[in-house]
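Summary for the steering committee. One of the milestones for this cycle was to obtain a three-dimensional model of the protein with S-adenosylmethionine bound, which we needed before selecting residues for the alanine scan. The sequence and ligand used are listed below.
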Amino acid sequence: MPREWNARSYDSLPLPHQHWGTRVLEQVTLTGAEHVLDAGAGTGRDTAALLERLPRGRVTAVDASDRMLEVLQEKINDPRLDSYKHDLTQPLHLPSLVDACISIATFHWIADHEVLFANIADAMRPGGQFVAECGGSGNVARVDAAVAATLGDRQDGAVWHFADEGDTRSRLEAAGFTDIQVRLRPDPAKLEEGEQFEAFLATVILGGHLLKLDESEHEGFVKEVAARIGEPVVDYVRLEFNARKA
Ligand SMILES: C[S@@+](CC[C@H](N)C(=O)[O-])C[C@H]1O[C@@H](n2cnc3c(N)ncnc32)[C@H](O)[C@@H]1O
């Protein structure tokens, strides 16, 4: 079950997601008239950038978080945009097939990539481009170790799903994609020690863990994880892929 996000705090942070979004968008080939799906659009940064490149096209932006969508809808009021709440583990049922799909920093929050990719493939026209990135194998290993040391026996189940290149290629093929390129990219992000690093951890990374803890424990948990990580660097490893619907 997807969880809620603190969208206002999210938007106030120095997010490496901005570079990740730019990298994804650079790979999408558009004439300006396409219909593009932003899967896990969050607060709409890349949705807005897509609309700029689609003067005669349109964007469908979906996300499972009401709070993220509320901010997206406050920021973007455009007749070329259709945005609504949707859990990507469920079929999309769009009124027409999309010409392309992008996704940034979302898929590692979803356990079943077979189902996820099949749902996206069903929403795309043949030949459509699918460009996405998310946390990949080895992502935030130092954060994971700090969380494990902090929680000890209380750690309960996986929060993230960091896929590797081989599994991702097979799952994309099985869902009906071709011309597949997949790679892992180490991409550490440096933050300011103290408040900024702790806010980043709490808002962007540890939300799934915080859900499982009593609210009275949140602040102490985040501080302890930050202290165990030491240098305020998040050891991101991105899984990037580009494919075409067969
Ligand atoms: C780190 S944010 C990324 C948002 C945006 N793409 C960006 O780069 O800023 C991850 C997003 O994935 C969304 N998400 C997680 N699981 C989802 C699911 N099953 N279906 C749809 N969205 C989901 C969350 O609600 C959140 O907005």
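Key point for the committee: The chain has one domain: 7-140+159-189+235-245.
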